[in-house]
Structure formats: structure tokens, C-alpha cells
Design brief:
heterodimer, A: alpha+beta, Rossmann fold, OB fold (Dihydrolipoamide Acetyltransferase, E2P), six-stranded mixed β-sheet, B: mainly alpha, MetI-like fold, ABC transporter permease (chain B)
């Protein structure tokens, strides 16, 4: 598979505008053959438009789409070796499951489809349902038919447009694993569009976070989570605590920052912002990296850790962990997730605490950005 | 699962709930009543009356009596079968023409018209603001001998072709089968377009995209996805056109001649001029039965009950 690049998807300078609205800004992106790639973003960020341009259902305003070495920009969808799993599945209501799955094969003039369709239906565990109509199946079954109908054509690339959006949580989890299994089995390039960050992180090898028609950051799920480059990524993927700080000193690969009254240390390699002494930087840390110690025990905290003092404003026990909201002078709502291993009974709302974490878990972002970018969108999606 | 064997505790509230439920159960019948009365009064009763008329014998002077004279039916068929055949042929041709003309227009309105959609729909219905009779008379002028339409057809030598097919006679269009079929097509076209539009408009556009994505060229997409999904519209449109067209007599009367008489003209003549009520009633029933049989066969064949 390493020397076959016929399933590479290359977008160069591809953009889409509708009148004065730019849905996708000129985009350069390469998705290597055989990878499971996720386009992640809130609704309206341009991820579906990007997918539709790869499928040929939407014409780019500028730029090119290539599959392997072939430029497909001007090919109609029925000539592209690409298949799509639509958000609403778009199964043909007048055809039974068998004919839905056989549709692509028949259009390419393949006569004996019986064996292939049978095998494909077995792969998605729907062999028994072959003669049913789509409306007789459950949502999860319809979703599997949609996947089978696309995969049977052995496309170079499979495009998935929020295919799990209509399923309930439990089924969604199950289908995530199922899709991942199928992808590993068939080795086809998958491009998966989703607004669910957890779904993107569980399934994809590489995630591109999109915001307002641009790719904000691209990388492996762990890389995006640990080293966000923008406030949007920091807030959209999981939760981040962001503190406004001022550069105090720079020495080698360590930057010392002033925030409130205290000092924080940040490895220079983990700072994506330009740092000049006296300049502003946003310092971030993930809630689960932070340890919480009652103020009375503050003496026991090792010297080399970043620390902030505050007061517990709220705590919620959720089984595996307890989530605290800390009111601190540098940040009014500091979030801390503590594993429930040895619970300190003194950590209740109102208690004075010290938050501390390893400087290696600190990241620095450009302070000119909106500190809340990506926050509201997460809330909207969760309530939707 | 032990709870099943226990006596259900909330026994007391059930009697309280009963009265509103009983009243609710009768509501549908109350709602049905006006419709049923209407049907009885204006459909069932006249039908019974006509049925009895069709088996009466007698004359205007002596009065008619029910003598169960079923021979009237056989006499009617053997005498007027050409008119029956003509009715089915003309109505069938007009229906086919309506489908050919109406489908592209309905397709255009449903998928391509954009903001013009409502305007075009209004234009489709606009002819109804004029009386059926006036519109048909207008066609008399349009197809008049020596008029621009006939002149154009003549200079293109199309009338030679239609004459050869037996649709027109000489260099006339008026008073020929072609004129009657034209009138029927024109008058019933909206009844074809509207149901077609409704069923095309309901088709999810993503199905076209899905077909396209699955290697179907635009025409294949139409053949394999759009057309089958519009079958309910095709069936209801053809029925709404064919049924009234086969009973119509105005078009044959105004645009045709004695050679283009349809069964509707015969019934009208028997009722209003010859005053042979039994034959007229028998002809009406035969026409109704013929249409019922044709429609049943047609619906069976098109298999619409299988569609969503």
C-alpha cells in the first residue's frame, strides 16, 4: 500500500464562494492513501462543502481536486472513483436493500452482482434483510446499507458526511467501531465529516479542525489535543483553561510568564505565539493535567510546578472523576478534573486550594485571538 | 416480572375516564356523517335511479316500467361500439399527449423553476378562470380552415402525414379526430401537470445526488430514480385525465364532426334529443364499467400500491 498512491486526495487552492459568502477559503490539503481522515468543525464551517467538492456534487470556485495522479476537478460525480455516505443516507425508497446496494455495480454494466452484493450485505450484517425496503429498517440498519452501497464499488475514496448524526448515542459508539473495523479491513481512504469531536478523535488517524472556511489545525488526535495551536482548537477539542499572561523572561528553552501575582513556566517549544519580553501570551492547560491541593498542604508541592491559588466555586461528582470549577484571580472559571482515587474530604465549595501542574503540560497561544473562540459552538452542538 | 401477577392497583380511576373515551369513539362517525349523507343523496340515489331506468321499457306517451329488460345493454353495445372504441382511443391518445407535454413542464417547475415556481403554477391553472366552453370554442378559431395553424401545418406538409394516418381529412383540421384530441389534450392538461408536479416535488434532491454519486448519468438517474418515484403522480395524473376525457362530449361536439362522435355525445343525444332514457342509462353504465375495468387493470400493471 505504501507505493500505491492512487487513493491520495489532493486539494490545491480549492475554494468555494456563494455570492459574497466564502464557504471555503483556498485550501491545500493532502489525504494520503489508506488513511482515516476526519474533517471536524461546527455546522457552517465549510466541512460538508469541502466533502461535496471532492465528490463532485459542488463545483469549486477556484483550485483543483486530484485523486492520485488524476485531476478530477472537471469530472462529473458519476465519473469519479469516489463514493459518498450521505448524512440522511439517501437510500432509494423504491428499491429494496439488495437493489440499493447493487445500484452502483449495475450502472457500471456489471451483470452478475448477486455474489458481490451478498458478500457486502454479510459484511454489514444485513444478509437477512436483502428483500426489505429501506423504510422497513431501523436507522442503524439504514446507515449500514448506505455504507454497503458505497463500499461495494471499491471506490478510491469513501466520503462520509456526518453518517452517524441521526443515531442515538449507544448505536453511534457501536457504528464508530464498526466503521473503523471496515476501514481497516478494506484499506480504502475514508474522509469523514463530523461535528462531534469525540467521534473524530476515536475514529480518525488524522483530524483537520475547520473553522469559518479554513483549516485551523491538522494532526493526529493526540497531537491536536496536547498541542493546540489556536484558541479555537484548544476550546473546541475538549476543554482548555486559558490564562492571559505577560512574558517576564526568556532563557533557553524556557519562558517565564507573569500572571496575576504568580509566575508560570512554559517550554519554548510548546508556544506557538511570538514571545517578546513584556508581550502578552495566552497560557493554556487541560483540566485533567492539574492537581488540586488544599491550601493547608501547599508546602508539599514540588518547587518546579506551575501553581495558581483559588477557591472552589463548584464541584460535581461524576463517578470516575470529580469536576471542580475554581475561582482564581487569574481566571474566573478554572476547570479541574480530578480522578477519584483518594478523595480529600476538605475539597468542597468554598475551600482555598492551590492548583499545580507540570510546566511540560503548559501550552502557549497567540494572545491576539479571541480567548473564547470555539467555546459557544461546543455548547450549541451539545444542546442540539 | 412478578408485578404481572399482582392485581393492578389503580382500579379506581378507570370509571372516571370512561365517559370522555366513549364520546371520543363516536366522534369519527359524526365527522363522517355529512360526507356519507352527501354521497347517499347525490351519488347512490341517482345511481339506483339510473340503474332502474336502464332496465325499463315503454315510451314517453305510455310511461316507462321496470321490466328487467337487460337486452337494452346488448343493443346499446352492438349499436354504439364504434363510439365506445373512439372514446377510449381519443381519451387514451389525449392522456398520452398530456403526459408527454406535462411531464417535462412538471419536472421544470419542481426542480428548475426556482423563484418562478409559483408564477408558472398559476399560469398552469390560469385557463380555469375562463369557462370550459369558451376555451373549447377558442380552439375552433385556432384550428379554423385557412387560419395560421392550419396554414403552417399545410406548408410543412404535416397535414399530408396526418391525413394518411386518418387523423385529418384533406387540408382541414377542424371536424377531424385531430381537432378533438387537441381539444381534449388542452382542456385536461392541468389535471396531468398538477399531480405530476406534486409527486416530483416530493422527491428528495439528495436521491439524485446519490444516484449521480453511484455512477448514474443524468438520464439514467431519471430513468432509474426520478421516474419510478414519480409513478404515483403519473398514475393519478393519467386517471384524472383519462376518466373525464373518455366521458367528455363538448370537445367532440364543438371541434369534431359526426364521424368523431364519442360515447358522451351518444348519451347526451339519447337523453336530450331522442329521449330514449333506458338506452342512455344503459350506455352510462357500460361506460362506467369499461372505465372501472381499464383503471383497475392499469393500477395493477403500474404497481403503485408498492410505492411509498
Amino acid at each position: 500500500m505504501t507505493n500505491d498512491n492512487s487513493g491520495d486526495v489532493r486539494l490545491s487552492g480549492m475554494s468555494k464562494t456563494y455570492g459574497s459568502f466564502t464557504a471555503v477559503h483556498p485550501l491545500d490539503l493532502t489525504v494520503p492513501q489508506g488513511s482515516f481522515f476526519a474533517l471536524l468543525g461546527a455546522s457552517g464551517c465549510g466541512k460538508t462543502t469541502t466533502l461535496r467538492m471532492i465528490a463532485g456534487l459542488e463545483e469549486p470556485t477556484s483550485g483543483n481536486v486530484s485523486l492520485g495522479d488524476q485531476d478530477v476537478t472537471n469530472l462529473p460525480p458519476y465519473k469519479r472513483p469516489v463514493n459518498t455516505v450521505f448524512q440522511s443516507y439517501a437510500l432509494f425508497p423504491h428499491l429494496d436493500i439488495f437493489e440499493n446496494v447493487a445500484f452502483g455495480l449495475r450502472r457500471r454494466g456489471i451483470k452478475s452482482v448477486k455474489k458481490q452484493v451478498g458478500e457486502m450485505l454479510d459484511l454489514v450484517q444485513l444478509g437477512e434483510q436483502a428483500r426489505k425496503k429501506p423504510h422497513q429498517l431501523s436507522g442503524g440498519q439504514q446507515q449500514r446499507v448506505a455504507v454497503a452501497r458505497a463500499l461495494i464499488n471499491h471506490p478510491k475514496v469513501l466520503l462520509l458526511d456526518e453518517p452517524l448524526g441521526a443515531l442515538d448515542l449507544k448505536l453511534r459508539r457501536q457504528m464508530q467501531l464498526e466503521l473503523k473495523r471496515i476501514q481497516t479491513e478494506v484499506g480504502i481512504t475514508f474522509i469523514h465529516v463530523t461535528h462531534d469531536q469525540e467521534e473524530a478523535m476515536t475514529m480518525a488517524d488524522t483530524v483537520a479542525v475547520m473553522n469559518a472556511g479554513r483549516v485551523e489545525q491538522l494532526g493526529s488526535p493526540a497531537d491536536l489535543y496536547e498541542n493546540p495551536q489556536t484558541t479555537f482548537v484548544a476550546n473546541f477539542l475538549g476543554t482548555s483553561n486559558l490564562i492571559e499572561a505577560e512574558v517576564d523572561t526568556k532563557s533557553g528553552d524556557e519562558i517565564v510568564l507573569r500572571a496575576g501575582g504568580g509566575k508560570l513556566s512554559l517550554p519554548a517549544a510548546r508556544c506557538s505565539a511570538p514571545t517578546t519580553t513584556g508581550g502578552k501570551v495566552l497560557v493554556g492547560v487541560r483540566p485533567e493535567k492539574i492537581s488540586l491541593t488544599h491550601a493547608e498542604d501547599a508546602g508539599g508541592i514540588p518547587e518546579d510546578r506551575n501553581r495558581i491559588t483559588g477557591k472552589i466555586a463548584d464541584s460535581s461528582f461524576i463517578g470516575v472523576s470529580t469536576q471542580y470549577v475554581i475561582d482564581s484571580p487569574v481566571c474566573p472559571e478554572f476547570e479541574v478534573y480530578a480522578q477519584n482515587i483518594d478523595r480529600d474530604a476538605r475539597l468542597v465549595p468554598g475551600a482555598e486550594v492551590v492548583l499545580h501542574w507540570s510546566p511540560a503540560h503548559t501550552f502557549g497561544l497567540d494572545a491576539t485571538q479571541d480567548i473564547d473562540a470555539g467555546v459557544e459552538t461546543v455548547g450549541e452542538e451539545a444542546s442540539a | 416480572m412478578t408485578t404481572v401477577t399482582e392485581a393492578p392497583p389503580p382500579l379506581a380511576p378507570t370509571p372516571q375516564k370512561k365517559p370522555p373515551r366513549r364520546r371520543g369513539r363516536l366522534t369519527p362517525y359524526w365527522l363522517l356523517l355529512p360526507g356519507i349523507l352527501w354521497l347517499l343523496l347525490f351519488f347512490a340515489l341517482p345511481m339506483v335511479y339510473q340503474a332502474s331506468t336502464s332496465v325499463q321499457t315503454g315510451s314517453l306517451e305510455e310511461g316507462y316500467k321496470v321490466t328487467w329488460h337487460f337486452a337494452t345493454y346488448w343493443d346499446a353495445i352492438s349499436e354504439y361500439w364504434p363510439q365506445f372504441l373512439r372514446s377510449v382511443l381519443y381519451a387514451g391518445t389525449a392522456t398520452a399527449l398530456c403526459l408527454l407535454l406535462g411531464y417535462p413542464l412538471a419536472y421544470l417547475i419542481a426542480f428548475r423553476a426556482g423563484r418562478w415556481r409559483n408564477l408558472i403554477l398559476i399560469l398552469v391553472i390560469a385557463p380555469f378562470f375562463t369557462s370550459f366552453l369558451i376555451r373549447t370554442l377558442a380552439w375552433k378559431t385556432i384550428l379554423a380552415d385557412g387560419g395560421p395553424v392550419v396554414g403552417a401545418l399545410n406548408s410543412l406538409h404535416l397535414l399530408d402525414v396526418t391525413s394518411w394516418l386518418g387523423l385529418t381529412a384533406g387540408d382541414r383540421v377542424l371536424a377531424t379526430p385531430l381537432a378533438v384530441v387537441c381539444g381534449l389534450t388542452y382542456n385536461f392538461l392541468p389535471f396531468m401537470i398538477l399531480p405530476l408536479y406534486t409527486s416530483l416535488e416530493r422527491i428528495d434532491g439528495r436521491l439524485h445526488e446519490a444516484a449521480n454519486d453511484l455512477y448514474a448519468k443524468p438520464f439514467t438517474t431519471f430513468r432509474k430514480v426520478t421516474f419510478p418515484l414519480s409513478m404515483p403522480g403519473v398514475v393519478s395524473g393519467t386517471l384524472l385525465t383519462f376518466i373525464p376525457a373518455s366521458g367528455d362530449y363538448v370537445n367532440a361536439d364543438l371541434l369534431g364532426s359526426t364521424d368523431t362522435r364519442m360515447v358522451g355525445n351518444v348519451i347526451q343525444g339519447q337523453f336530450l334529443r331522442v329521449l330514449d332514457y333506458p338506452t342512455a342509462a344503459a350506455l352510462s353504465f357500460i361506460l362506467m364499467a369499461a372505465i372501472l375495468i381499464i383503471v383497475t387493470l392499469y393500477i395493477r400493471k403500474s404497481g403503485t400500491e408498492d410505492l411509498v
